[in-house]
Amino acid sequence: MNLNQALELINKNIRTLKEYYLKPENIPVKLNQNENPLDWPQNIKNDVAEFVRKRPWNRYPNFVPDELKKALAGFSSLSPDNIIAGNGSNEMLLDLLISLTEPKEPVIVCQPTFTLYQILIEGLGRKALIEYANDDLTYNVEHIIDACSKNPESLLIVCSPNNPTGSVLTENQIREILDKHKGFFLLDQAYVEFGGYSAIPLLQEYPNLIITRTLSKAFRGAGLRLGYMLGTAEIIREINKIKLPYNINFFSEYVAIVALSHKKELEETITLIQPQRQKLYEFLKTLPLDNVYPSSANFICFRTELKDSLFQYLKENGILIRDVSSYPMLENCLRISVGSEEENELLMQKLTQFFKNRK
Ligand SMILES: Cc1ncc(COP(=O)(O)O)c(C=O)c1O
Fold this sequence. Notes:
four-stranded antiparallel β-sheet, binds pyridoxal-5'-phosphate
């Protein structure tokens, strides 16, 4: 068999997918991945290092991460039965798409949004039914409800706050959708600690609602790979059947428990990031940009015809941001994660310089 014959044997849905790839760049100020700018306090790291040194590495992690589930349950004001934890919320999205979709039913996706949804949908051989946002990039709830009523068994995926636009669904809008939709509603709330309505209270009323969340953003834990889903216990029990055994390594499990026990200390970055976001948003509004979109997350999206030269200028000056212009509706758009106060100051200084140089 030659290589081409072997390639031909790969599942066609995978073969036709576009690669999801982020080139590694060694740039001092990283504002391209919506990460938290702050690392963890040294005392917490020392505690974790001590645990990792002592814990036997030849043994599997717990089959059910009970303690972690308890900690997540406490944080979410739910019971451990309402939770599945995994290797980032990305893993949870895959489990949910496997469990809640069928090849014959399209999955409703609201573009522009997180790229991974469509990759997973298409990779699993499902069809994405795309609903577009309003011109100002807010959600078009009327169109979403219309798509739901025409596809009552479809899984609906909405991200709120949305990556990369920062827009949100309000409580009333979520209720309105849930009151009408007969299928499952997957609400990705990876950024909800930074703003927007947290839909956890609605889980009691709507068994078709599933929420995904993560420790990667507000909890400063992107390197841990720890995400979780929340839903009605009976639904969670079914989805759990497809979760890989031992999907969380003992390090991440332990660190996540520690993180949740230092909730206040770690969440305090939120009170640092929200004012920085506001400051950056107001500053961006003073620049000759085409649009700056309000955001409830830890990033801001804006549009400028100068996107290539601006992106390059910032990169040459040690600041990496994200070009999101290939997303649907986001022609000429860039996205900047809200960094630390120092990073934000440097960014604003460089942006001022860029526009001054053009005069
Ligand atoms: C909207 C959204 N959902 C999920 C994720 C994945 O998060 P995790 O690090 O928990 O896999 C991201 C990551 O950037 C995201 O933007």
